[in-house]
């Protein structure tokens, strides 16, 4: 057993309203620069839909991720290392900017500078790449809310895997949103396809990053990543990707996309896993076994043997504690509600999703049924094959079992909590039917529905095993001192606000008196009236002391 | 004049080549990239780029053979002048044709595809001009002189002079007697070598051969103790799978 720690995310799709706030704030934070105009480290796509870039899930075409070769060994779908190098002069499986969309801006200047004319001046769209006039024909979320109709939606590669009848019904009936960031995989195929070794997985927290100095722009990673979450900056000639907002999580605060999520649907926490088992789990024969295999890689942070091994591997107590309180561990392992996105790519993704029950509830409500009655819900999950099959293609390589189990637990939670909230007699058999205790269902409800900030994000402060050492560095600085860089904020304030009465505003006999508003809380001189009439605190104390010292002599 | 062209220029160019690369490697890791334009256009690139690059690799291989291996060595192993000439002309013409065809496609792409043209810097244009001139004069030498013409034994002059540069015993006078097209080719290549480190051609020296032997997934520690020292070497330590 070789224990490693990973910061992972879970998104609760039932709560996503498709507002794109995460995408916009992420873009403002990370990709509002030249060369990555087209890049969205976080994007929200409507399912069914083509996704971004268009049809990225079609691995027959894009060759992302891993596959098993004839000998059952894990190899990159795009080919062997030698083949990668032979293709280095022109990558045959690389999307061009047209597959994402050609970024554009508008010629707003024309609105102000156009000469007088009979018609209102317009702001023409201009390509951000060439600066020339362009036609806006596609965008990062062009088919948002099923925009474009069956003609566009029908090109969804996931729909293509379903039967014809299911496909049609789905297009007419269901829709949900899928926010996506980099998966920070345990077995990242982007890193594996980087010829320069510039993409690395951080040993402390599992975040996958691109070393901008080492990247030489061979663009093999763009092909390697099956989620198409590596973007080539066409200005700098370097690959860029989601950073899991490492500067934020390193100090214990959530990523920008999570922090600004309106629906509060994102969870961040630590997972401990056995690094020795990753390769084996990623190479199981049947695609449908990949989800359980990955579950098996995760370690129980409450198991004393795991804790001992983690400590031996140099994982700090703070991290182990965070792993024990991890909301992500609860959703993935304890409740088995969250599922991985496309486990069949064999990259062992680490951003998981709680599948949405709302399409089922919506259909029930629309057809005049009670969408929260447990019998109706359970029946609908089974009867409406469509959402379950589609979700299974997304989350479990087509195995409907885990999706159905997850949806049933969500349905049971709804029904159970309605009885609790309406003060009805609580039917414990509802919880029992999904193999949970009523208490477990209620704590699941608190995590999913109440979703307090501190429950959603359990991120060890100073993410890294060196946190304590670093902390000692900042609090015990050798440069502490007058005017030195180690001065505390209080020192600065003392200096700034002149904590002695130097402005001459005090009465003439109390010039050395301290103004209590300015008192530094330490120095008592001038705080109390002296025994002498001068009003000088320190000299008054001095004379009193001298007087006391003389007294015994006088007595003696 | 001959001292300037065939003694001063080569040493200036080679010094600039060497020192420039070291300087740029130490100070401009972020700028060290292929600056690929495949994002903009893929179809023509997939045709032209492999033709050009593989052709050029063969051309460079031919140059190494012709310039670095003394004539006496090949004669010693029993390769006659005629055989050598035949092989070098055939292989050289084939490789050169591929290179020129590839370059033509790439240049056509660069100037007709708007996004690619916009991404071309002034430095790129100078470099392309020199590179194209070097390749075209090289073709004139191979095809014009050696294939169609009577053939010129550069191994008795250019190669001897070139090797002399590295032993500090080069005879610049030898070079004044060689055909004009060879002289022009040599000067252009020397200038190209001189500006090499300051162009995108640096990507030649990051050919990622280590990829063949590296573990698939690279792990790196976020190490606050030594942020800079061994920064690049660290990527290769502490990895698994």
Automatic annotation (TrEMBL), chain A:
It holds the Pfam family Fer4_11. CDD domains: NarH_beta-like. It comes from the Bacteria. GO terms for molecular function: 4 iron, 4 sulfur cluster binding; electron transfer activity; metal ion binding; nitrate reductase activity. The keyword Transport applies. SUPFAM superfamilies: 4Fe-4S ferredoxins. The keyword Chaperone does not apply. Its cofactor is [4Fe-4S] cluster; [3Fe-4S] cluster. Gene3D superfamilies: 3.30.70.20, nitrate reductase domain like. Residues 532-545 have a biased composition (Gly residues). GO terms for cellular component: cell envelope; membrane; nitrate reductase complex. Keywords: 4Fe-4S, Electron transport, Iron, Iron-sulfur, Metal-binding, Repeat, Transport. Residues 7-35, 173-204, 206-235 form the 4Fe-4S ferredoxin-type domain. One of its GO terms (biological process) is nitrate metabolic process. Residues 527-556 are annotated as: Disordered. It is found in: Cell envelope. Its main location: other. This is Respiratory nitrate reductase beta subunit.
TrEMBL record, chain B:
The chain crosses the membrane at residues 6-23, 44-64, 84-106, 126-144. Does not seem to have nitrate reductase activity. This is Nitrate reductase-like protein NarX. Its main location: membrane. The keyword Membrane applies. GO terms for biological process: anaerobic electron transport chain; nitrate assimilation. It is found in: Cell membrane. One of its GO terms (molecular function) is metal ion binding. SUPFAM superfamilies: Respiratory nitrate reductase 1 gamma chain (SSF103501).
């Amino acid at each position: 057993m070789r224990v490693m720690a990973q910061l992972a995310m879970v998104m609760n799709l039932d709560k996503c309203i498709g507002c794109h706030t995460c995408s916009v704030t992420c873009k403002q934070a990370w990709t509002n620069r030249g060369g990555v105009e087209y890049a969205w480290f976080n994007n929200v796509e409507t399912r069914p839909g083509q996704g971004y870039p268009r049809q990225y899930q079609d691995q027959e075409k894009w060759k992302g991720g891993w596959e098993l070769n004839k000998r059952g060994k894990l190899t990159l779908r795009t080919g062997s290392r030698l083949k990668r190098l032979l293709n280095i002069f022109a990558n045959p499986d690389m999307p061009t900017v047209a597959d994402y969309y050609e970024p554009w801006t508008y010629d707003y200047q024309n609105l102000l500078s156009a000469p007088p004319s009979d018609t209102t001046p317009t702001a023409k769209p201009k390509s951000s790449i060439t600066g020339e006039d362009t036609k806006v024909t596609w965008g990062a979320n062009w088919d948002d809310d099923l925009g474009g109709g069956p003609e566009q939606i029908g090109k969804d590669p996931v729909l293509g895997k379903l039967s014809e009848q299911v496909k049609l019904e789905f297009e007419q009936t269901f829709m949900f949103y899928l926010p996506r960031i980099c998966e920070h995989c345990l077995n990242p195929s982007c890193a594996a396809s980087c010829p320069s070794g510039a993409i690395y997985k951080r040993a402390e927290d599992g975040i996958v990053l691109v070393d901008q100095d080492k990247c030489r722009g061979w663009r093999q990673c763009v092909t390697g990543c099956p989620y198409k979450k590596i973007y080539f900056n066409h200005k700098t000639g370097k690959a860029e990707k989601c950073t899991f907002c490492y500067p934020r999580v390193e100090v214990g605060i959530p990523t920008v996309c999570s922090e600004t999520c309106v629906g509060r649907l994102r969870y961040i926490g630590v997972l401990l896993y056995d690094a020795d088992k990753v390769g084996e789990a990623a190479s199981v024969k049947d695609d449908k076994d990949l989800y359980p295999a990955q579950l098996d890689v995760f370690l129980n942070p409450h198991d004393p043997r795991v804790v001992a091994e983690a400590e031996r591997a140099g994982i700090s107590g703070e991290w182990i504690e965070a792993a024990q309180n991890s909301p992500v561990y609860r959703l993935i392992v304890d409740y088995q509600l969250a599922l991985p996105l496309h486990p069949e790519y064999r990259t062992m993704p680490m951003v998981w999703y709680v599948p949405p029950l709302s399409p089922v509830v919506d259909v029930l409500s629309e057809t005049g049924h009670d969408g929260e009655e447990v019998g109706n819900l359970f029946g609908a999950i089974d009867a409406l094959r469509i959402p379950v099959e589609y979700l299974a293609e997304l989350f479990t390589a087509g195995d409907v079992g885990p999706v159905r189990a997850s949806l049933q637990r969500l349905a049971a939670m709804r029904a159970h909590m309605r009885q609790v909230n309406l003060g009805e007699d609580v039917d414990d058999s509802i919880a029992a039917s999904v193999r949970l205790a009523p208490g477990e269902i209620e704590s699941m409800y608190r995590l999913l529905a109440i979703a307090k900030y501190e429950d959603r994000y359990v991120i060890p402060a100073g993410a890294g095993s060196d946190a304590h050492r670093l902390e000692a560095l900042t609090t015990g600085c050798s440069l502490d001192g007058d005017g030195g860089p180690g001065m505390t904020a209080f020192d600065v304030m003392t200096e700034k606000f002149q904590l002695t009465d130097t402005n001459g505003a005090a009465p003439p006999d109390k010039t050395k008196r301290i103004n209590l508003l300015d008192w530094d809380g330490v120095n008592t001189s001038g705080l109390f009236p002296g025994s002498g009439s001068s009003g000088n605190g320190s000299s008054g104390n001095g004379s009193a002391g001298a007087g006391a010292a003389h007294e015994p002599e006088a007595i003696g | 004049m001959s001292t300037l062209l065939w003694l001063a220029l080569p040493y200036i160019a080679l010094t600039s080549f060497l020192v420039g690369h070291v300087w740029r490697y130490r100070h401009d890791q972020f700028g060290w990239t292929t600056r690929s334009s495949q994002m903009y256009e893929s179809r023509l690139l997939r045709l032209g780029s492999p033709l050009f690059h593989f052709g050029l690799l063969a051309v460079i291989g031919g140059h190494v053979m012709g310039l670095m291996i003394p004539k006496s060595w090949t004669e010693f192993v029993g390769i006659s002048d005629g055989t050598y000439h035949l092989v070098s002309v055939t292989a050289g013409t084939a490789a050169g044709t591929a290179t020129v065809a590839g370059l033509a496609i790439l240049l056509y792409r660069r100037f007709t595809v708007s996004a690619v043209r916009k991404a071309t810097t002034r430095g790129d244009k100078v470099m392309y001009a020199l590179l194209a001139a070097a390749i075209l004069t090289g073709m004139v030498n191979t095809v014009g002189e050696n294939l169609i013409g009577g053939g010129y034994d550069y191994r008795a002059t250019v190669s001897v002079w070139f090797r002399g540069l590295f032993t500090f015993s080069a005879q610049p006078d030898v070079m004044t007697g060689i055909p004009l097209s060879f002289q022009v080719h040599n000067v252009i290549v020397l200038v190209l070598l001189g500006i090499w480190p300051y162009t995108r051609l640096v990507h030649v020296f990051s050919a990622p051969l280590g990829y063949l032997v590296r573990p698939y997934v690279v792990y790196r520690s976020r190490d606050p103790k030594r942020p800079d020292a061994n920064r690049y070497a660290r990527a290769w330590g502490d990895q698994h799978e």
